[in-house]
Amino acid sequence: MGISARRSRQEWEDILAAHQSSGLSLKAFGEREQINYHTLIYWRQIFRKKSKEESAGSFIKITPTSSGETRSFVELHYGKDISLNLPLDYDVSDLVILLKGLSC
Length: 104
Hints:
Strand content: 5-15%
Largest sheet: 2 strands, antiparallel
Structural class: mainly alpha
Helix content: 40-55%
Shape: elongated
Mean pLDDT: 80
Radius of gyration: 21 Å
C-alpha cells in the first residue's frame, strides 16, 4: 500500500456524486475505486449533515402590505421546489407537521 494524497472537500463531493450515478452500493463503489468503505461513509455523513443544515428552514415574520388586494390565503415557499397556498386560518400545529413531513 502506498501513501495516498489527501483529497479536498470538492474531490470528496465529486467522488460521492460519481457513486450516486454509478448505481453501485457504497461498498462495491469503494472496492472498485480502491477507497476505504468507512472513509466513504464518513464523507457521505459530512455532506448529508451540511445539506440538512443548509436546507433547514426557519420561520420568518410575515407582514402584510396594503396593496389593496384582498387574499384569503398565504403563499409559502419552502426550499427551492415547494410552494404552498394555505388558507389564512390554517392551523399552525398542522403546518408544523406538514413542514416536518416535507423535510424528510
